[in-house]
Amino acid sequence: MDEAGEHEDRDGSAPDGDRADDGEEPGFAETLRSQSAGWLLLAERMHPRQQPALDDMDELGMGSEMLRAALDQFRQQALLLHNAMSAQARAYEEMLESGGPDDPEAYENYRQATQFINELLP
Q1: What digits encode the pLDDT tens for the residues 30-72?
Q2: pTM of the model
Q3: Cβ atoms of 34 and 26 closer than 8 Å
Q4: How far is CA 122 from CA 57, 60, 80, 81, 117, in A?
């Protein structure tokens, strides 16, 4: 076995025993919250950074209306995904606190919340 093989798994990551978080995988709700935060960060940072370039395009007579509209639509979609993922994480945590997936009432409330969230998405 080569040196890299002694310390890394096939995908290049450290073996489970050497993980900083003691081998615990993040939970479903935590994964949703992390992804939600990523969409929010993208929406907040990308949009303002584009404005100077779009203004420059306008000054050159290139017209940026279509690009501005596309960027605004993308920002709105990113914010929608952020909100939907946050709501899904909350619904999942509420289900776990109310008895988990084995509790019929808790699971039905979670299923209804999930259906409602999915109906909000385009």
Answers
A1: 999 999 999 999 888 877 778 888 889 889 998 888 988 888 8
A2: 0.67
A3: yes
A4: 31, 36, 10, 10, 11
Rounded to whole angstroms, the Cα distance separating 24 from 26 reads 6
Contacts 24+ apart (CB under 8 A), 101-110: none
* 3-state SS class at 63: coil
Residue 29: name the closest of 109, 97, 80 by CA: 97
- Between the alpha carbon of residue 83 and those of residues 19, 86, 89, 106, 122, the distances in Å are 31, 5, 10, 22, 13
Q: Which residues contact 120 (CB under 8 A, 6 or more apart)?
A: 80, 84
CA distance 90 to 115: 14
